[in-house]
Amino acid sequence: MIKLFRQVRHSLIMKNQTSKPAFQTGRYFKYAIGEIVLVVIGILIALQINNWNQNRMSKLEEGKLLRKIQVDLKLADSMNQRFLSSFTNYQNLNIQVFSEIRGKAYYNPNMMYHDLWWYSTYNAVISENYSDNLTDITNDNVRDALRDYLKHEEILLKAFKNWDLLKIETVRPFVNKYGIKNVDTIFSKLDFNFKNAFNLEFDIFNYSKLRAQYGTEELEQILGSLYTMTGYIILKLEEQKTYLDHLDKALKLRLQDKNN
Fold first, then answer.
1. Quick one: which of 74, 171, 82, 78 has its CA closest to 118?
2. φ and ψ of 246, to 5 deg
3. Is the model's pLDDT at 21 over the cut of 60?
4. Cα–Cα distance for residue pair 146/76, rounded to 1 Å
5. Secondary structure of residue 205 in the 3-state scheme
6. pTM for this predicted structure
7. Is the separation of the CB atoms in 244 and 127 below 8 Å?
8. What is d(CA 117, CA 191) in angstroms, rounded to the nearest whole number?
9. Least confident of 13-22, 54-63, 130-139, 150-159
């Protein structure tokens, strides 16, 4: 392009020289002006090409980012459903024990009473991987949906931490204090490497020792806290599904636009 401009400029100068005389200084001045113009045009063209390449690369990188979020969102959705199932079981256990205390239910051999002991750490997949990427997303709908999801995930993470603290600082000391864990069952049925710990088909609690605490203020206060905090997490998990679906829809629409 610049070569073409130079050929045209040179042709005009030569034509001007043959058609009418010009001072040598004037010719050099025109030549210098022409060189400056060519350099400026070349710089502008180079900048335009560079900007085009940068925009193209940015769009490609953003597309990769959105697809990564979409993949991790499926993982987050799967985890959300598992947590919702687990906490529904935890809440049913809270209700079962309280109902037994009030004489409205009896021992249920299918109920794992030792679930009162376990806690469940929440993995904030999207926050851990993408909380710093909001400014990299140019689409308003995706960016807003991701921001809303991250805010709610932070609320859910705090709820899990408080629930875990209740288990660690209150429930477990209570269980140890009254010897409710069945140590013989733990040593005879729990794997040496803890492999079967999260798929237990046996109860490691001594039910008679747990039942001995029925009606005590200490146990009832613990159950009250467990019930309210477990219910709050169930509520937030259900709400999280709404934010997740909204973000997933925004991602799909944006990726479809990029492909068209």
1. 171
2. -65, -45
3. no
4. 13
5. strand
6. 0.77
7. no
8. 18
9. 13-22
Whether 51 shows a pLDDT value over 70: the answer reads: no
Cβ(197)–Cβ(84) under 8 Å?
A: no
Query: Is 237:84 a contact under the CB 8 Å cutoff?
Result: yes
Tokens coding 10? 């040179």
Annotate 162-193 with b (16+ C-beta within 10 A) or e (fewer).
ebbebbeeebbebbeebebbbeebeeeeeeee
User: What stretch of H or E contains 237?
Assistant: helix 217-259
CB count within 10 Å of CB 254 equals 21
The residue-averaged pLDDT of 163-191 equals 95
Whole-angstrom Cα distance, residue 183 to residue 204? 8
Phi, psi of 181 (to 5 degrees): -65, 135
Distance CA 144, CA 142 (A): 6
* Cβ count near 128 (within 10 Å): 11
Q: Which of 81, 107, 78 is nearest to 93 (CA)?
A: 107
Q: State whether residue 125 is helix, strand or coil.
A: helix
Please tell me the predicted confidence (pLDDT) of residue 14. 59
First to last CA, the chain: 32
Question: Do 115 and 90 touch, CB atoms closer than 8 A?
Answer: yes
As given in the structure block, the two tokens for residue 184 are 């013989």
Taking 80 as the threshold, does the pLDDT of residue 5 lie above it? Answer: no
Pairwise CA distance, residues 133 & 125, whole Å: 14
Residue 20, pLDDT above cutoff 60: no
